[in-house]
Amino acid sequence: GIYIGEGNVIHLTPGGGQEVQFVLSSSLRNASSNPCPNCGHRPSNNGLMSSCLACFLNGGNLYRYRYGVSVAYLLAKGPRGHCTRSMSDPPETVVRRAIFFLENGSGDYDLVNNNCEDFALYCKKG
């Protein structure tokens, strides 16, 4: 997901009745039957949703992906999928992209080709 400030996250989830049982980072709670009192936790038709950080985490841990790390940091941490030497675009560009996709859609969720990680990486790097 992309943290957009003020406790809110935009993230891509399976929409339209799709179910993925092993998604680790974002909540798949049925928003229509028990909405969050803070954010409503209501997905849009295209699978993108804006929710509060608590709903996004759904009791899980927050993991931050790091961009622009040094070679020394990368070697010390190992290639575990949590960092990269490449740089991210500026935060205002990242947030603008996430909001654009929330308002306009990003295509149907696909576990392999258009998933939550793909959405976040595109927002971060274009």
Automatic annotation (TrEMBL):
<dbReference type="Pfam" id="PF04970">
    <property type="entry name" value="LRAT"/>
</dbReference>
<feature type="domain" description="LRAT">
    <location>
        <begin position="1"/>
        <end position="126"/>
    </location>
</feature>
<protein>
    <recommendedName>
        <fullName>LRAT domain-containing protein</fullName>
    </recommendedName>
</protein>
<dbReference type="InterPro" id="IPR007053">
    <property type="entry name" value="LRAT_dom"/>
</dbReference>
